[in-house]
Design brief:
It is a single chain. By secondary structure, the chain is of the alpha/beta class. It has two domains: 28-115, Leucine Dehydrogenase, chain A, domain 1 (Rossmann fold), CATH 3.40.50.10860; 142-274, NAD(P)-binding Rossmann-like Domain (Rossmann fold). Helix content is 39%, strand content 16%. It has a six-stranded parallel beta sheet with strand order 1-11-8-7-5-6. It has a three-stranded parallel beta sheet with strand order 3-2-4, with helices on both faces. The longest helix is centred in the first third of the chain and has 21 residues, at 7-27. It is globular. The chain starts with a strand and ends in an 8-residue tail after the last helix. The model has no long low-confidence stretch (mean pLDDT 97). Bound molecules: NADP nicotinamide-adenine-dinucleotide phosphate. NADP nicotinamide-adenine-dinucleotide phosphate binds next to helix 10. NADP nicotinamide-adenine-dinucleotide phosphate (NAP) binds at residues 143, 167-170, 172-174, 191-195, 198, 211-214, 232-235, 272-273, 276.
Length: 299
């Protein structure tokens, strides 16, 4: 059976390190890290994510600001708030919770965030830095950054010569994940909905990352024996066995069968999920170090 990669405990390690780095920053007399989270509208899932981000930020010793704006907020008003946060020296990270209401151009809002405060890593400057291998100064999107940390725990930092297959080509997961694996010297293939014979391609992977959004799509016989399998997917499916109307979370990988073949695998929940918020904290403390003219801490 595969080693189970415990994302919950690795995420706790990251948060502990962020707390220690925050304390060191205060001891040096520098401004403590500040994270501003902006949410527009009342989407219940977004409210849960935002509350959890703000709570972890406080736990890390950060200044944690939350702007909760009504659904009818205009694009102009939102851009004004972003401009004010860009200019505020007590803020090192700005996060706009997506999706935004339809009348607001999300792309315009994301590109309005100062790149050095873009702790989600969605600004073109940060995308470009990742694409050109400028990892020292780039902010990398939190989910792929966290997934990479999980891979490093199993395989080490230098992945020279390993074949990696990333299933999914979204801008927030698949593409940045592929760039991180490339920077670590993997031979990388990105697969998507038009890929031919995905099972055969997946079987070439020493590192297989699934970021698709299709429950249990990756089967056990798609997995190369000994491979490291990272399941980014979070899918809620009906679970009548738990009672009427009940549901449960599953990933994009058929966990039971894949775990019999893989060398190491992330569970869902408890794998990649907890890493995302932890890496948001890591990016924010890194931003505060850079703003104070100090060396960027690594994780
Ligand atoms: N753990 C976390 O914190 C976290 C964070 C973000 C996302 N997620 C989860 O990760 C999953 C992916 O998220 P995302 O935002 O990247 O999703 P997305 O934007 O919907 O992208 C999905 C990708 O999967 C590809 N795809 C769809 N069906 C496929 C198929 N049958 N075969 C091969 N490829 C297929 C799509 O291909 P095309 O481009 O060809 O359409 C697309 O590139 C979701 O379950 C999401 O909930 C988790």
């Amino acid at each position: 059976m595969a080693e189970v990669i415990d994302g919950k405990s690795i995420a706790e390690d990251v948060v502990d390190k962020v707390k220690a780095l925050t304390a060191e920053l205060s001891a040096k007399g520098a401004t403590r890290p500040g994270l501003a989270v902006v949410i527009v509208g009342e989407d219940p899932a977004s409210q849960v994510y935002v509350a959890s981000k703000s709570r972890t930020a406080k736990e890390c010793g950060f200044l944690s600001l939350q702007h909760t704006l009504p659904a009818e907020t205009t694009e102009g008003d939102l851009l004004k708030i972003i401009g004010d946060l860009n200019a505020d020296p007590s803020i090192h990270g700005i996060l706009v919770q997506l999706p935004l209401p339809g009348h607001i151009d999300s792309g315009k809002v994301i590109q309005a965030i100062a790149p050095e405060k873009d702790v989600d890593g969605f600004h073109f400057i940060n995308v470009g830095k990742l694409g050109t291998g400028e990892l020292e100064t780039a902010f990398v999107p939190c989910t792929p950054a966290g997934s990479m940390l999980l891979i490093e725990r199993v395989r080490g930092k230098d992945l020279s010569g390993l074949n990696a297959v990333v299933v999914g080509r979204s801008n927030i997961v698949g593409k940045p994940m592929a760039n991180l694996l490339l920077a670590a010297n993997c031979t990388v293939t990105i697969a998507h909905s038009r890929t031919r014979d995905l099972p055969a391609l997946a079987r070439t992977a020493d590192i297989l990352v699934a970021a698709v959004g299709r429950p249990e799509m990756v089967k056990g016989d798609w997995v190369k024996p000994g491979a490291t399998v990272i399941d980014v997917g979070i899918n809620r499916i009906p679970a009548p066995e738990k009672g009427e109307g009940k549901s449960r979370l599953v990933g994009d990988v058929a966990y039971g069968e894949a775990a019999r073949v893989a060398g190491a695998i992330t569970p869902v929940p408890g794998g990649v999920g907890p890493m995302t918020i932890a890496m948001l904290m890591a990016n924010t403390v890194a931003s505060a170090y850079l703003a104070a003219g100090l060396k960027r801490p690594s994780f």
